[in-house]
Amino acid sequence: MSRPAVVLVNHDPGSRMQLRERVAAVCPPGMEVLAAASTEEALGVLYSLREQHRQVELVIATQGMPGIPGGRFLEIVNAQFPGVGKILLSDKPSLEEAIYTLNNAGLDKYIPTPWDPEDVKFTITALLRQREMKLLNEKLLSDLQMRNQQLTTALVSLEQARSEMEHSYIQTVESLAIALEAKDRYTSGHSQRVSKFARLIARSLGLAKEEIEIVAQVALLHDIGKIGMLDKILNKPANLTPEEREAIKSHPVVGAQILAPVSTFSKHVAGIKHHHEMYDGSGYPDRLKGVEIPLHARIVSLADAFDAMTSTRPYRVGLPIEFAMQEMKRMAGIQFCPDCVDAFIRVLKTSGVAEEEPLDRPGPLPAGAPGAPRDDTPEDASGPFRDVDLPTGT
Question: How far apart are CA 60 and CA 8, in angstroms?
């Protein structure tokens, strides 16, 4: 490792030798003290040390030098060798000279001569310790900044990986929800339609764009809890047993449990868990009432029931939209949120949807075909919407 150095300049040989000995006596082992007879020679020494990549700790100059005075020399050092410690020795000290060199040369110490040996020891030791601490702090700060940069990079990578993982999870869940419906032509597209209706209701309620998107996603995933249910229960062509009904009724809670571990779904879980609550408090799983029911759940509940009423089932043809609107009005405040009903009907009337059949709905099957409507099929005997809380009488 290159030896650090102290450079001093004094035109008087005797004074220069004496000063060099005193400085060398108090410098730590391994530090070289170099003496120059002129400022030009001292600059040459400094440039040579820099070429050798050696650290210069201190430069000590005498003010009364022929040619370039010590103060001016230290101004040059300050500009060409930033960070080097600087001491000016003056045989004719003055306040004006001290202020000038402190301001323009970045002076560390201004000392009148003669320089007392004890003062030499104290000054050199203190300045070297200060520089050591400063360099150590700079290194620590540099290391800290590097570590912070590394941590920032690592956090960005981690966040990107987390985001990609959550995005992949979201896509998987949505794909499973769609695959769940694809098993039966009557369930196919149900969640997508509920999502569209929920979006219309949310927009009509004046919700913010971000909230509208969350509502639409809740609607798309509202039946995700059915993933783990047996097909023989979901597609049973006969009345469900009490145990099977309880299994069907568990899907909102199961759906919430599936999505809860992912932070992206933190705003979705409540809407999925409570989309079968009734406005009058008679729903499930927690028998919430009125505005206790999360708004997302109230919206999805209405959209879900509307799609169930107007979609063709294996046991009956879908109901006319106008009739469904009357049913929603009749059940407002009982099963459905009145504000949501008003908002949805307002959209249905103003958008012209009420005059048209909604898109992407399965049409009725010919009489006698497998799955065609049967007059003797009980209302709740079968079909993909057995879990939807239809208004009484539909």
Answer: 4
The residue ranges of the chain whose pLDDT is under 50 are: 354-386, 393
Name residue 86's beta-bridge partners: 59
pTM for the full model?
Answer: 0.54
Contact 33, 20 (CB under 8 A): yes
- Longest distance between any two alpha carbons in the chain, whole Å: 126
Which residue reads 């249905």 in tokens? 348
Distance CA 120, CA 128 (A): 12
- Find out whether 391 and 309 touch, Cβ atoms under 8 Å: yes
Is residue 372 a part of any domain in this protein? no
- Do 55 and 186 lie in one domain? The reply is no
- Running DSSP on this structure, what letter comes out for residue 257? H
Please tell me the predicted confidence (pLDDT) of residue 187. Answer: 64
Extended strands (E) in the chain: 5-9, 32-36, 56-62, 85-90, 109-112
The amino acid that residue 89 corresponds to is L
Considering its fold, how many domains does the chain have in total? 2
**Structural domain includes residue 151:** no
Compute the distance between CA of residue 354 and CA of residue 322 in angstroms, rounded to an integer.
6
What number of CA atoms fall less than 13 Å from residue 58's CA on the CB side?
31
Question: CA-to-CA distance for 24 and 4, rounded, in angstroms?
Answer: 12
Task: Count the helix, strand and coil residues of the chain and give each as a percent rounded to the nearest 5.
Answer: 55, 10, 35
Q: CA dist 181 to 187, 192, 230, Å?
A: 5, 10, 13
